[in-house]
């Protein structure tokens, strides 16, 4: 195996990639992050700015597979594009064996069909979507002839340390019962497009181990899993917290109402019924390390434990 270099190692997905790599990657591992991190064998930690290419080149092993999990959520589009250019320079100057880049499935945009795969045309509309797609395009253009590039497009990643589902947990704990009931009726069985962070981390290493024979783009999703919809996810979290069941039966409202509400609030970044297909990744031999119900149950249990801890501290 080639050495593994993880950029954005202190971020949500980067940390989980390193956790899995400790047992699954039989070669040197280098973690690069701005904030630095505690070294845990066999991982070598490097604190540095990715845009300071000259300084990083001296610390990185040549011929490594680079995983790019770095992105600045609060940075401007120009800053994130500059970051992508720095990644290209790093890959070029270290003679990388390959680059696995973490993008996002939402680059497809709000006019996507109900079933999305890697061949679906991308029509991004938000700044985030456009920036992510432009980064993909620049990496593909600049790395052609330099090293293999694999782009992973995960859907909404959830798990320990992630932001997805935090608001739902908070709402179920603190919002009035009638508001939670109204939202359950409005969202109904709408797809949540969630994917466990453990699955994404495993997909990253799967791609890294076969860069030369991987597809140029792979979607990482769990959209076909049972319970990956609003009703199923809400029920799992509600039972774990625990929260009171809805006093009235949930009556799903017409989907057009949800679509209208999203347009009015400016939150429509994807169609309400869209599902993403991971068939191409599965056909390549990838097997997820955890099922969606298992990962959701574990997340809900952890959220319940954290909620109990907050209550105990507040009453002391």
Explain this structure to me?
The C terminus is likely disordered. The chain is built from eleven helices and eleven strands. Helix content is 42%, strand content 14%. It has a seven-stranded parallel beta sheet with strand order 3-2-1-4-5-7-10, sandwiched between helices. A two-stranded parallel ribbon has the order 6-11. It has a two-stranded parallel ribbon with strand order 8-9. Helix 1 packs across helix 7 and helix 3 runs parallel beside helix 4.
Mean pLDDT: 90
Main β-sheet, spatial strand arrangement: 3-2-1-4-5-7-10
| Helical stretch tally | 11
Shape: globular
Element-by-element helix/strand order: EHEEHEHEEHEEHHEHEHHEHH
Which class of secondary structure composition applies to the elements? alpha/beta
Radius of gyration: 20 Å
Low-pLDDT segments, ≥5 res: 310-316
How many E strands?
11
User: What distance separates the N and C termini?
Assistant: 53 Å
Helix content: 40-55%
Largest sheet: 7 strands, parallel
Please tag this protein with its features:
single chain; 316 residues; alpha/beta; two-stranded parallel ribbon; 11 strands; disordered C terminus
């Amino acid at each position: 195996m080639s050495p593994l270099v993880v950029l954005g190692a202190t971020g949500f997905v980067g940390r989980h990639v390193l956790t899995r790599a400790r047992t699954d990657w039989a070669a040197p591992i280098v973690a690069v992050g701005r904030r630095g991190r505690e070294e845990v064998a066999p991982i070598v930690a490097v604190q540095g700015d990715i845009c300071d290419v000259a300084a990083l080149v001296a610390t990185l092993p040549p011929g490594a597979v680079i995983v790019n999990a770095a992105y600045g959520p609060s940075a401007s589009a120009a800053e994130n594009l500059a970051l992508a250019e720095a990644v290209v320079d790093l890959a070029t100057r270290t003679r990388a064996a390959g680059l696995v880049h973490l993008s996002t499935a939402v680059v497809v945009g709000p006019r996507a069909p109900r079933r999305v795969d890697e061949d679906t045309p991308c029509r991004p509309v938000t700044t985030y979507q456009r920036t992510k797609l432009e980064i993909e395009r620049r990496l593909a253009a600049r790395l052609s002839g330099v090293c293999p590039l694999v782009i992973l497009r995960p859907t909404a990643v959830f798990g320990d340390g992630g932001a997805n589902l935090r608001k739902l947990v908070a709402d179920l704990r603190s919002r009035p019962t009638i508001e939670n009931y109204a939202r359950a009726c409005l969202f109904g069985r709408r797809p949540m497009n969630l994917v466990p962070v453990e699955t994404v981390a495993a997909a990253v290493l799967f791609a890294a181990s076969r860069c030369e024979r991987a597809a140029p783009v792979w979607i990482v999703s769990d959209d076909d899993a049972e319970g990956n919809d609003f009703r199923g996810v809400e029920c799992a979290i509600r039972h774990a917290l625990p929260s009171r069941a809805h006093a009235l039966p949930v009556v799903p409202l017409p989907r057009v109402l949800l679509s209208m509400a999203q347009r009015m609030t400016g939150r429509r970044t994807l169609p309400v019924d869209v599902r993403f297909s991971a068939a191409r990744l599965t056909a390549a031999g990838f097997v997820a390390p955890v099922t969606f119900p298992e990962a959701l149950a574990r997340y809900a249990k952890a959220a319940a434990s954290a909620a109990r801890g907050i209550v105990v501290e507040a009453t002391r």
